[in-house]
């Protein structure tokens, strides 16, 4: 599956999801297309590829 992106210089391209992650980390793209529409980097919610800090609260799971 390819994802449509817009680079910071206004060019459009189709990239693989793995490349999109790299482009987002390097601030190379300004927006990309999801099923729901265009996502604008810095304005819309993005999935964080960095693992979040581990929960340090009480364990409430039942065994």
Number of strands: 4
Radius of gyration: 16 Å
Give the neighbour order of strands across the main sheet: 2-1-3-4
Shape by Cα distribution:
elongated
Instruction: Give the percentage of residues in beta strands.
Output: 25-35%
Number of helices: 1
The proportion of residues forming helix, as a percent range, comes to 10-25%
H and E order? EEHEE
Mean pLDDT: 86
Uncertain ranges:
none
The secondary-structure class comes to alpha+beta
Largest sheet: 4 strands, antiparallel
Give the termini separation: 40 Å
List the helices and strands and how they pair.
Elements: E1 3-7, E2 12-15, H1 17-25, E3 29-34, E4 37-40
Antiparallel strand pairs: 1-2, 1-3, 3-4
Overview of the structural elements:
The structure is a single chain. It is built from one helix and four strands; from the N terminus they run ββαββ. With 63 residues, the protein is an alpha+beta fold. It has a domain at 3-40. The chain has a four-stranded antiparallel β-sheet. The chain is elongated.
Compact overview of the structure:
By secondary structure, the protein is of the alpha+beta class. 14% of the residues lie in helices and 30% in strands.
Key features of this structure:
63 residues; 14% helix; alpha+beta; 4 strands; elongated
């Amino acid at each position: 599956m390819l994802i449509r992106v817009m680079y910071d210089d206004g060019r459009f391209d189709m990239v693989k999801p793995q490349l999109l992650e790299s482009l987002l980390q390097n601030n190379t793209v300004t927006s990309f297309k999801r099923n729901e529409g265009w996502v604008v980097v810095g304005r819309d919610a993005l999935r964080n590829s960095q693992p979040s800090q581990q929960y340090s609260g009480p364990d409430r799971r039942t065994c």
